[in-house]
Amino acid sequence: MRKPTIDPLFDPATFTMSYVVGDPETGVCAVIDPVLDYDPASGRTARRSADQLMDMVRARDYRVAWILETHAHADHLSGAQVIRERLGGRIAIGEHIRAVQARFGPLFDFGPDFATDGSQFDHLFADGDAFTIGGIEATVMHTPGHTPACVSYCIGDACFVGDTLFMPDYGTARADFPGGDARTLFRSIQRLHALPPETRLFMCHDYQPGGRAVRWETTVADSRADNRMVRDGVEEDLFVEHRNERDSTLRAPALILPSLQVNIAAGRLPEPEGNGIRYLRIPLDQLGSG
Fold this sequence. Notes:
Blueprint lengths: L4 E7 L4 E8 L4 E5 L2 E5 L4 E3 L1 H12 L3 E6 L8 E2 L1 H8 L2 E5 L2 H11 L15 E3 L4 E4 L2 E7 L8 E5 L2 E3 L21 H12 L6 E3 L14 E3 H7 L9 H12 L8 H8 L27
Parallel strand pairs: 3-6, 6-8, 8-9, 13-14
Antiparallel strand pairs: 1-2, 2-3, 4-5, 4-7, 10-11, 11-12, 12-13, 14-15
C-alpha cells in the first residue's frame, strides 16, 4: 500500500490539527481541516494558519487537488476558501452536511436564499466513496455521532478521523451537539477499530491532557488497547452512559456560533453589509444552558 507524506500543523488557539497529505510520486496533495484564525474579542480574522499550510504545500512542490473537511467544525472557522483562492483544489465534505445546514440555517436566519443542498461545497462524499490523491487510493467512511455529517478519510495506510476519536489518553469526541448521539458515535468508532490494526489514525484535535506535548497520531491497535473511553471490552451501553455523563458537564465551545455559520457555507465569510462591514450573527439563548 502506498503511504502518503503527512505534514501536520497544530493550532494552539483551538487545539486543532490540520494536515497536508500528499503523493510525492505525482506531486499531488490534499489539505485536511484548515483553520482560519479568528479572535472573538476583536472580531478580527487572520491567515497565519492557512499561510503555514500553504508554505508546507509549496515546500514539497505539491499541487492541491482536494481541501477536505471532516465535518462542520464548531471550534474554529474553516480556512478552506483561503487555500482554494491561493492554491486551487476542490472543497469537499460528507453529503450529510445537508442535515447540518437544514438545522442551523434557520438558527442564523439565513433565509430562503441559503441553499441546504450542500452546493456551497465543490463535492459531497457518500459513505464508501473512493477517490485518489495523485496515485494514492482514498476512501470515505461516514462516521457520525459527534455530528450527523462527520466523515473519516482513509488515505493509503492512514485514516483522518476528524472529531470521532481522540488520542487514547483523552478518549473520544463529545456527542451532545444538535444531531449528535453517543450510541451512533460508538458504532462509528467500531467501524474505525475494524480497520487493519496497523492503520495509522490521525486526530483533528489534541487537548494535551496533563499538559503533555501535543500528539496527533496513533494506530488502530493502540486505540483498541488503550483508549480510555472506548477500548476493547467497553460495551456500548457503558460507553453511552459515560459519554453522556461527561457531556453533561461540558460547556458549549467558545466559537461554536461564529464557526458554524461560516463552516456550513464551506468557509465563506458573510457578505459585507451596505456599510462595507461583514457581520457574524450571534443568536441569543438558543444553545444549551451553560
